[in-house]
């Protein structure tokens, strides 16, 4: 009796063990040196679908034959979740790609990266305007290789047909009245003069960048008021798509623009690469150009919004010297050359890079587009610093309430102020 | 083998082929029931449309270009049918490999979950011992803790065990869930205890009762547990995403989400992949649902 | 005489004790294979998370002791209040509706009809349809102006049709409807299995007693289904209290905080804001709520069985 029972139990366990053993994958180990070569592991997102990484890595390996790069592929959709988890577990991936300034604030606050101040001092700061975005209390934990910023994408054919002048140096008020002229049709034939995507940054960050007294992190948001009135007015006039519809239909700004549903789309420079790709593939045949984003006042410097993408060195990295070499490469001219060749806007600016960028197949060649490519100032598109995520979250929630009409502009802004003060600043 | 169990199995077998005869008191009800049947088909068909609408949209989107998917107003029939999506997806991502990985994980986890779950459920439902119910409640209550809460401690543990980036980690995490124990326990509770007593008198011990009587009787529950575990494992995304770093270990769900970029997404490809990834579940469901037929279960206590 | 009884009691006691020990051994031997895996890979991390609820931790640097700080903060946190209320409301809507519908569907599809397999698969399809597709199609159905739902409501004479996902008041009901629609097939499978366990003799006996359809349902089906109903009820409550995916895809918790639920708050504060101690405190509270609800349901079930 007892024999049998033990046998059954043992057999069960054995079977379990067998199954487990059979399925064990081989644990991959991070970069180890073999025949004098160093292997650098770098966390990236969607390696296959994001060609900028391969372009950058190939160029670096060519320039540094004794270093091999091994990408650690992570999904863009939940990149920060996985990086947070990996670093918590003591992962030794050498270099972490920093997706945005909000994530950077987290890494910097936890001091998960190596301070690369020394390296930064040797970079040509005047040519890399985004470099200062990573400065935190006299330290610097990352360098930028890519700098996206907002520009006004417009449909040249629609402007011509409506008899509207090209959008050179628009103010926001002019933007709204142009949108009025460009709007036509109704129902499923409706064409909007402009499309403003659902992100809160597309309303809030412009006054933040273009007004001198606007600050993200003091808990005062009166400076957003005029911009909200402008956008809500456009929504009421039907010259932009209703926020509720855009949000619930998960409307794609690329689709709105490529299918000629909207004549103007203020959007980040990242939209250029897919537009070029679709043109090449034949799924997009519109005649488009880019212009500087509208300003609050005419005749001022062109101030745009945007954020850098960069690289930081993991504190647990065992190849810090090689990693520093890579950071210098990526932030400098050679790195810029590599990413510009595939339609990505590099952090390093120079005439040579601009020329190279506009030589891309399908790029608009007019002067306005070239002007739009070099704004005078680029400011962050959201809060920065240690409270970035928490403040950004509140500003986004209240943005939704204002845009759906659940709250008036004044009430919404008052709520932002009181919530940021009590929940984040603990005043 | 004891006579009782052979009786039981025999009875089960006959129940399979000849469902126990229904009483014959329903002659005049026949017409009414035929009308009722027709009405039921109509109702079911209406239900079908409501239920399948998003799936139909998904199917239609899988034949579109990316920039035609998220249109306002919604587009039910593609302007041009892009059949090539179904050919391209295999080259854009190593879908075949991902399908294989998902299948391996889902099969192993389902097998272990069903085996250990139904085994433990016997202990929780048919053996009375002190602390049993408290332990059971602990099992059930942990289902309530959201994974986001203990994801990091779990990962740190696995990292120390050197198991991250292996299938073993995922199998260990998911095969011993409380869900299977709970489901099987509840099913066993419906099986009358008299059956156990009878079998015990017949000289079977608990392990024998589990293997020869309870297990064959609980085919519908085993089928539903296997089905639901398979589906949940197959569709799980965060688990494999956090634990599997090497691209050659990725599952279908990770593969599909790789079409969502930092700024834009290839929605047509996502929908194409989603349609393909449903097919295995569809087949599993069709083969599993035949166990949900009235008349399999008999208590074995009659006449 | 005395010696005999003495001897009897002497022999009986060890037997009952050893029987008890044997029961425990047998019970645990059944449970152990699953329990080992469960305890190591789920229970221990869960306990670790609960310990973290009493600490400050950023998921990287060593944690520091916080005492009940996190819980004090919780009491005054408006995000927690909002998420807590939304979660409870969601559960109150989602649980009974899904329970009733999945049971109804199981009864409907537990028949010998031609093509029944096809219908069963179809009802299960919402559960396996891509979440993105679900979000887009349901948002389209809920569209305040052009959506078929509101057009129907206008047709039957409701002038002030709700704004659904674009309004703060109706976003949660919209999410509940969608999730009921998505989950009913899943729980139907559990009910279908449960229905198979009801011995057909019970129905035959009821018919002999002259019971009609309803009487059979009330007197045979429902009582026999009690363990399954308990299973579905608990699983539904648990999944309602930790709902995340569907809401995240449909509304991201918005507009504003109209559909913000506890799981999303845990995710936000933990992963995104790097405050794992605080997010663990929220999880602990969530766990306690569900534990109370489950124990309550368990006790009721036990009492009914008696």
Textual characterization of the structure:
The complex is a heterotrimer of chains A (427), B (303) and C (306). Chain A is 44% helix and 15% strand. Chain A is an alpha/beta fold and 427 residues long. The longest helix of chain A is centred in the N-terminal third of the chain and has 22 residues, at 2-23. With 303 residues, chain B is mostly helical. In chain B, 68% of the residues lie in helices and 0% in strands. By secondary structure, chain C is an all-alpha fold. Chain C has one domain (77-305): MetI-like fold (Orthogonal Bundle), CATH 1.10.3720.10. Helices cover 76% and strands 1% of the residues of chain C. Chain C is built from 13 helices and 2 strands. Chain C has a two-stranded antiparallel sheet with strand order 1-2. Chain C is flat. The chains are: A alpha/beta (427), B mainly alpha (303), C mainly alpha (306). At the B-C interface, helix 2, helix 4, helix 5, helix 6 and helix 7 of B face helix 1, helix 4, helix 5, helix 7 and helix 8 of C.
How would you describe this structure in keywords?
heterotrimer, B: 303 residues, mainly alpha, MetI-like fold, 14 helices, disordered N terminus, C: 306 residues, two-stranded antiparallel sheet, 1% strand
Structure summarized in a few sentences:
The complex is a heterotrimer of chains A (427), B (303) and C (306). With 427 residues, chain A is of the alpha/beta class.
SSE order and pairing:
The complex is a heterotrimer of chains A (427), B (303) and C (306).
Chain A: H1 2-23, E1 38-45, H2 51-63, E2 67-74, H3 79-88, E3 95-98, H4 101-110, H5 117-121, E4 135-136, E5 139-140, E6 143-155, H6 156-162, H7 172-182, E7 192-194, H8 201-210, H9 225-237, H10 243-248, H11 253-258, E8 262-268, H12 272-281, E9 288-291, E10 303-313, H13 320-331, H14 333-340, H15 351-358, H16 367-372, E11 377-380, H17 388-403, H18 409-424
Parallel strand pairs in A: 1-2, 1-3, 7-8, 10-11
Antiparallel strand pairs in A: 3-10, 4-5, 6-8, 6-9, 6-10
Helix pairs in contact in A: 2-14, 7-9, 8-9, 14-15, 17-18
Chain B: H1 3-17, H2 29-61, H3 85-92, H4 95-126, H5 132-142, H6 147-160, H7 167-175, H8 178-190, H9 194-201, H10 206-217, H11 219-235, H12 238-243, H13 252-257, H14 267-288
Chain C: H1 2-52, E1 55-56, E2 64-65, H2 69-76, H3 78-108, H4 116-128, H5 131-141, H6 148-155, H7 171-196, H8 200-208, H9 213-224, H10 226-241, H11 245-250, H12 262-272, H13 276-305
